[in-house]
Fold:
Amino acid sequence: MRPLRRTAAALASAALASAGLSACGSASPTVAQVQGASPISKSLLDHWIEIESILAYDTIPKAPIPAGVIAVPPHYSACIAFLATRPYLREHGTPKATPAQLKARCVQHFVEVKRKALGYMIAFRWVAGELARRGLTITQAEVRKAIRMFQIKDFRSTRQFENYMTYAHLTPPDLHFILEYTVMGNKLQKQGITRKALSPAEQSQELASFIRRWTAKTSCKPHYVVAGCKEYRGSETPL
Structure:
C-alpha cells in the first residue's frame, strides 16, 4: 500500500467525507459502487479529475494553473493549444507535433488522470470499510493533526496555504478527505495488514486477501473499469 500521494490518486471523518462528497454528485449517474459505501458519481469523479490534473502538473501550485492543464473531452481544444506551447511534450523525432498527435496526448492524459482519480475514490472506500471490519477507528483529532502537519511542513504562511488551496481547486472538505485517507491507511497498515506481529509472508497474504475481498465488493460501469473493479482483468490494484 503506497503512502498518500500529493495527487488526488500521487497527495488522497469518513462520515463527513462520504456525506459531503457524495452529496455534490447526488443527481449524477453512478460510475462505480463499493458495497456498503456511498456511490461514486460521475460529478464526484469529474471533480477529482480536475484536482488530479492540476496536482499532476504542479504538486504545490503557487500560481494559477494555465488553461489546458485540465484536459476536457471530447474536443480537448485548450489542452491541444497548451501542449503546442510545450516543446518537451512534442513527439520525439519531430520538430513540431501535429494537432492530431497533440490531441492523442490529451486523450491519453485524460484517461490516465481518470484512472487515477477513480482508483483513489475506490481505495478510500476499501480502507474505510476494512478498518470498520477489523474494529479499528480513527478520530477527528488525528485527521486535524495531519492537516496541521501538512500546513506546517509545506507552507510558510497562511496566505501561501490559502493560495495553494485556490490554485489546486481544493475545498476544505477535499483536503480533509485526502488527509483522512492518509490517517486511515497508516492505521490499517500498522495495526492490520502489515502489523509487526506478522511475518513478511503473512503480511503478503493479508494484503492479497484484502484486495480479493474488496475487489469482489466493487462494481464499475462500462468505460469506468479500473484496477479494483471486479470487472477489471489486469494485474494492478488501486492501492
Notes: The longest strand covers residues 30-34.
